[in-house]
Specification:
alpha/beta; D-Maltodextrin-Binding Protein, domain 2; LysR_subst-bd; 12 helices; about 325 residues; Arc Repressor Mutant, subunit A; DNA binding; WH-like_DNA-bd_sf
Length: about 325
């Protein structure tokens, strides 16, 4: 291969080839990238080889299992994401001059954020900007960060956790609430004003999938391992099992409606990690589009009354 020639790159490489290369990096197979971009695999291979020739450097490391970006390929992929992000920002800003605030806005969030906070606020945003088409995705924390960093979501809302890799996103604080312990009425722990995680370990702890990592980390700090007998996907199911006497659970306080408080007992969780901090994620280094900025402004302008509780914990 020759040396990198900027002029050749500008004159000979089209945006579709750049997008195809990025798909190959993300899919780790040229064949899958070809399917994603709806072209023949042989054509995809030829385009990427031509791109390497023009760049004058190997961009993909090939093996029988697929491809991974070379160090130079990683640099190119990073700049391609910036290019396509800027193109979308340009399209949105120009459209705002002639069309008003409209377009498509993809929001990724966890159920534990949608239910108590985000659903209501998205409804208000939709009424204020009826020409903006909202695309909503319910994902877990790590998937939210992944979707935003890859440009598959314009904005993501997630609960902070030590194990999350935030290298591809910019983060803005949004809200916080408290995790509390929910036990059946008459349970021995119900006489306590607060309990520690160590005191919960002997109990049948009904765990929601999204909390499993935090519980295992807390157990390791105590020198033990945590494997729940009951592991479910939603707070609503966990709380119903507690009501049936099958164990205890830890949930965000905002999930506990007043009607539910008459059927279970709620206890403070005396742990530093019991404060759940929720953040807004946007793609790193990209200026948010006008619609994204409008939604962020609305979210950040909302009153922060964390004592508000909601009856729907499905």
């Amino acid at each position: 291969m020759g040396t990198f020639n900027r002029l050749h790159l500008i004159r000979q490489v089209d945006l579709f080839t750049l997008k195809l290369f990025l798909s190959a990096v993300e899919e780790q197979q040229i064949g899958l990238a070809a399917i994603r971009e709806n072209i023949a695999a042989s054509t995809a291979t030829k385009r990427i080889q031509d791109l390497e020739d023009i760049a004058g450097v190997k961009l993909l490391e090939r093996s029988p299992k697929g491809v991974v970006a070379s160090p130079a390929g990683n640099v190119l992929a990073r700049y391609i994401r910036t290019i396509f992000g800027s193109l979308e920002d340009m399209r949105a800003e120009i459209a705002a001059f002639t069309e008003g605030m409209q377009g498509e806005l993809t929001v990724a969030s966890a159920r534990s954020v949608y239910v108590p906070f985000l659903s209501r606020e998205l409804g208000e945003f939709s009424r204020e900007y009826p020409l903006v088409h909202l695309v909503l995705r319910e994902l877990e924390n790590a998937e939210i960060i992944h979707a935003v960093s890859r440009g598959e979501a314009d904005i993501g809302l997630f609960a902070a956790a030590h194990e999350l890799d935030l290298g591809g996103v910019d983060v803005t604080p949004y809200r916080h609430d408290r995790m509390v312990v929910v036990v059946p009425q008459g349970h021995p722990l119900s006489a306590h004003s607060s309990v520690t995680f160590k005191e919960l370990l002997p109990e049948q702890l009904v765990t929601v999938d999204a909390m499993l990592g935090a519980f295992r980390a807390a157990a390791r700090r105590l020198g033990t391992e945590f494997e729940p007998r009951h592991c479910v996907r939603s707070a609503g199911v966990a709380i119903s099992l507690v009501q049936a006497g099958l164990g205890v659970t830890v949930q965000p306080e905002c999930f506990l409606g007043h009607e539910l408080l008459n059927r279970v007992s709620v206890i403070e969780l005396a742990e530093p990690w019991a404060v759940r901090r929720i953040h807004i994620a946007t793609p790193r280094g990209r200026s948010p589009s006008p619609t994204t900025r409008a939604l962020m402004q609305q979210l950040l302008d909302q009153p922060r009354d964390e004592s508000t509780r909601h009856d729907d914990a499905q």
